[in-house]
Write a structure and sequence with these properties.
Elements lengths: L1 E7 L15 H4 L3 H9 L1 E6 L9 H8 L4 H4 L3 H8 L8 E12 L2 E4 L7 H15 L4 E7 L2 E7 L5 E2 L17 E2 L6 H24 L7 H19 L3 H8 L7 E8 L7 H4 L6 E4 L3 H9 L3 E2 L13 H14 L2 E6 L1 H8 L2 H23 L6 E6 L16 E6 L23 E3 L2 H7 L2
Parallel strand pairs: 1-12, 1-13, 2-15, 10-11, 10-12
Antiparallel strand pairs: 2-14, 3-4, 3-6, 3-9, 5-6, 7-8, 13-14
Amino acid sequence: MKHIIILGDGMADWPVESLGGKTLMQYAKTPYMDKLAGMGRTGRLKTVADGFHPGSEVANMSVLGYDLPKVYEGRGPLEAASIGVDLKPGEMAMRCNIICIEGDHIKNHSAGHITTEEADVLVKYLQEHLGNERVCFYTGVQYRHLLVIKGGDKRIDCTPPHDVPLKPFRPLLVKATSESATSDELQVTSAMQDDSAAHSSLVAGSSSLSPLTPQQTADLINDLILRSQELLKNHPLNQKRMAEGKDPANSIWPWSPGYRPKMERLSDKFPQVKRGAVISAVDLINGIGYYADLRRLTVEGATGLYDTNYENKVAAALEALKTDDFVYLHIEASDEAGHEGNVDLKLLTIENLDSRAVGPIYEAVKDWEEPVAIAVLPDHPTPCELRTHTNEPIPFFIWYPGIEPDSVQTFDEVSVCEGSYGLLKEDEFINEFMKS
């Protein structure tokens, strides 16, 4: 049996008063997801391990069954892998957003969804003026870029910019890790400290650069943020954007630091996956795929937004299923709509996932000679009311020809509480899915 996971990033939500107290998944018209949930089995999955921030990298690694305390290294190293930056021992990678600052506040985390072509001009400009033997900037996709610091210490406290829209930025600058933590956080921090010490030792032995302390690392990053604001505020590209009524891309915001992770290939855990593929417009998902040994399929028109080319993504997924054993189809649109707090747009993205991805894939594979198992789920909620991620368990269903269905007839956050899988955690979901 072949397997495909269709992941609607951030699709889950909270009840919305204007929708009669329903969640967006309850309110949206999703006949295919409801049909497959009715023919399959449903449940909930805890995708955010205790002590971890509900980031997409954490949640998607959990969906694939990775043991987060053992392998988690932040978002930066995953995005480095996706854009072809081969991290050396002791090199700390960070996701580096280009954001919009208005006054002293973070207006948005994406510089008004700047294009990759525009951002590339700014990233190269920053590398020219701020880059050196220790600091390197690399262009990623749209507002998502990469900062690599040789000898950096990841024991720092960074705030994801999408968590703090409209907040003053100065209190959110990087800090060395606090000594006060919960027991869960202490367990994670202890592992981080051991890993950081090992990496610092490698830096000292392989480079003329001395390793930085956590405080030195935080000070360096904050200096880069403030200097980037001075460099970017009058850049001709930003002057042009503002003249066109667009948000300026006038600051960097690095976060989620880490080193090269030690992740096992998906085929090591599931020998039946001799060949697999990942389809996503998001670097961090492609980076997870890289370490999971899934081949990356580039799709024309994939944007990571509501205007992404669903049809090309579906065509790529179906073509891959002809030769591959496993496909991970990731669609970002709902998450971005949630970050914008746009209920109507998020409803559209959920309905598009149903009608333009789940439906066509089901109709195409339902009668294949070799059966295909389909799982649909979000990675985490991104409530429009909150405009950022939360760590509540997410709904999922699994369907394949011949599965014995449970009693659930619709697919949403509430209905699946009655599902036969109950509440799963850690690698229980992927083990259940892959045993079909």
